[in-house]
Structure formats: C-alpha cells, structure tokens
Design brief:
The chain is 5% helix and 41% strand. By secondary structure, the chain is mainly beta. The longest helix is centred in the middle third of the chain and has 7 residues.
Length: 128
C-alpha cells in the first residue's frame, strides 16, 4: 500500500499494483511518472491523478465514449514499450480539458496502457 497527498482528493492510499507507470511521463509533465486512475462519480469519466505531484490530475475517458468509431493503430515501437503481448490488455484513454466553455478531448494524443502490467505511454496516434 502506498500513501500520498493530493490537492483535489486529500490523502489517498492505493495498492502499488494499481499505479500506472509512464516511463516518459505525459506531454508537459515528463518528470511525473506514476499515476493512479480513479472513478469520477457515476460517470464514464475518470481522474488520472499523479502520485508524485499533489496538484497534477487529468480528467480522462475512453475515446469510444465520445466518438463511437474512434480507433488507433498501436505501432510496433509502442507495443514494445508497453510490453503488450495481448490486445485485450490494452486500455486507451484520452485527456479532456475545458477551454472557453468547450469540452475538448485530445484524440491525437491518447494514453495507451497495458492494464495487465500497468505500463502506459502517451502516443501520437495514427487514427483510422
């Protein structure tokens, strides 16, 4: 079990096997490597909370929730980085932000996560 503080959710405790490790961090946050995924109320939205910085958290969602025909190709280098052997272990999320009263999803910079090994990376997608 690991304990850490957050500015939004107070003190949290999570099992270490629930922490997603992003070896390259996320765009704009290369030094922050460890995140935990948390449900957001009774919605398809989730919070991706940084373990090592209490102020860093992103709202994320599965892209098919907002665009039913969304798909990406995971190239060989990404598969290798994620140690992805089985497509069923792949989870894809996109970061959502609110800008000028509009909700914007970063569909071109999805988060690819090996849900079995809890390894993630932000990839530039080749969307279909």
């Amino acid at each position: 079990m690991i304990s850490f503080n957050t500015s939004r959710f107070g003190s949290l405790q999570v099992e270490e096997d629930k922490i997603i490790y992003f070896s390259n961090g996320l765009l704009g946050f290369p030094e922050i490597k460890r995140y935990v995924l948390m449900d957001y109320k009774d919605t398809p939205l989730k919070w991706l909370q940084a373990v090592d910085d209490p102020d860093v958290a992103f709202i994320v969602v599965e892209p098919k929730t907002i665009l039913s025909d969304y798909s990406i190709e995971i190239d060989a280098a990404t598969r290798q980085c994620l140690q992805l052997e089985n497509d069923e272990d792949l989870a894809v999320l996109v970061i959502i932000r609110v800008e000028d009263g509009k909700v914007i999803a970063n569909l071109n910079g999805p988060l690819a996560i090996n849900s079995k090994l809890m390894i993630g990376m932000q990839a530039v997608s080749n969307r279909n």
